[in-house]
Design brief:
The protein is an alpha+beta fold. The protein is built from 19 helices and 14 strands. The strands form three sheets. Strands 8, 9, 10, 11, 12, 13 and 14 form a seven-stranded mixed sheet that branches. The N and C termini lie far apart (63 Å).
């Protein structure tokens, strides 16, 4: 007698497997088959250069950690320069001149501070340097730098040496946070610091490596990210040719169903001139109240968001408190009204409307940034970018929104 006999469970393990890393490993395998890698990149709408001799797929990506360990162990000069130039600690002068042991001790290197070589930031101890780094911002900066040498994104696709797509797989869990140790969490609470999102550390890793990156969540539950494009596992696997995968993998993937299913668009057309009835504006009272606040404080933004309502166009909105912007069957942007600003994100909130598909790559792969540059948004300080978010201030001119509408209607 065993537990499977008692439960009368005779199905394969994959039918109940909840391990997201195992699912990520299967997705990694699927990307290696035929032209699946290029197909997936194309479906994401990410227009990075594909350099055949530089392309690669990596599971549990540890480039920063491995790059550090590729440095000759005795080359303390370059190690010290890397830390001081990239971290820019407050007491740089002291750290430039102190002994190797004191340098390691300052950052709480474990298990013990070496006298002979500068240790990896991944070996720094928050519990140790907490006692002598009093400034809250300096402490947080050092923590983030340390975590970059510990964190390992699930899958990273290099389209070239200088371009990458980072994929994080989730099944039942939500986005991870740092710190994870109980003692470190208590330190953060005592200092009044908020925990740091996993996605922020991933972005910092790629910044430290000097690699231009885009980020994708593969999820099973409804999940919102303001920094990452989000796809359901079923949706992602459906892009790929799995005929050469083992039978158990094919059966496993067939069993994965997302929590909602978008209906197929009847006779989809690459270019619509008439908006079908199921692409009608859906305007909620709370959204209307939020929008009305912009009428006097941000008239150009107000007019832009009213445009789909008052014009016969294939642009349309689905709203609750904020808005999803669509063009025909394509979701383009999640638009949040925050005070007198508009925040545009490629990540949709919860789900998108039936009969639609994610087309945010048509707007967020450099296109909207190009329009901002054309209208001098950065120089005139009415536009800024935080990760993949576009923030538009109340001083954003009407000419920018007209160009944006013109671009969207040409999709």
């Amino acid at each position: 007698m065993n537990i499977r006999d008692i439960l009368k469970f005779n199905a394969p393990y994959y039918s109940i497997n909840r391990e997201e890393r195992n699912l990520a490993a299967i997705f990694y395998h699927a990307l290696l088959i035929k032209d699946n890698l290029k197909i997936f990149i194309k479906e994401l709408g990410i227009e990075y250069p594909l350099v055949e001799d530089e392309m690669g797929i990596y599971f549990e990506y540890s480039f920063l950690r491995d790059l550090w360990f590729s440095i000759d162990k005795s080359n303390n000069l370059i190690k010290r320069d890397i830390i001081l130039n990239l971290l820019k600690p407050e007491n740089t002068i002291y750290l430039q001149n102190c002994s190797i042991e004191k340098f390691n001790t300052y950052f709480g290197a474990v298990p013990t501070a070496s006298r002979d070589y500068i240790q990896s930031p991944g070996n720094w101890s928050i519990d140790r340097y907490n006692s002598h780094i009093s400034d809250k911002n300096e402490f947080l900066k050092i923590c983030k730098f340390k975590w970059c040498f510990n964190a390992k994104p699930d899958i990273v696709i290099h389209t070239s040496n200088n371009h990458a797509i980072c994929i994080e797989g989730k099944y039942e869990s939500g986005e991870g946070e740092y710190p994870s140790k109980k003692s470190e969490k208590m330190i953060f609470k005592n200092r009044g610091l908020t925990f740091v999102k996993q996605t922020e550390i991933q972005g910092k890793i790629m910044d430290l490596l000097g690699i231009k990156s885009s980020f994708v969540f593969l999820v099973q539950k409804n999940m919102v990210s303001t920094s990452h494009k989000t796809l359901y596992w079923e949706e992602a696997f459906n892009f790929l040719d799995l005929n050469e995968s083992p039978r158990f993998i094919q059966n496993w993937i067939k069993s994965i169903k997302r929590p909602y299913v978008n209906k197929v668009i009847p006779n989809p057309s690459p270019k619509r001139t008439v908006k079908p009835k199921y692409f009608a504006n859906k305007i909620a009272p709370k959204y209307s109240q939020n929008l009305l606040k912009l009428k006097n404080s941000f008239p150009a933004g107000y007019n832009f968001l009213k445009y789909p309502e008052v014009n016969n166009t294939c642009m349309w909105l689905s709203t609750s408190v904020n808005a999803h912007l669509y063009y025909s069957e394509y979701f383009l942007a999640y638009i949040k009204i925050e005070g007198n600003t508009l925040v545009l994100s490629p990540g949709f909130n919860n789900i998108i409307t039936e009969y639609t598909r994610d087309g945010s790559g048509k707007l967020f792969n450099g296109q909207i940034q190009a329009l901002i540059k054309l209208c001098h948004g950065i120089e005139e300080d009415w536009a800024s970018q935080r990760g993949e978010l576009i923030i538009l201030k109340a001083t954003t001119p009407d000419k920018f929104f007209k160009k944006l509408i013109s671009y969207i209607e040409g999709i």
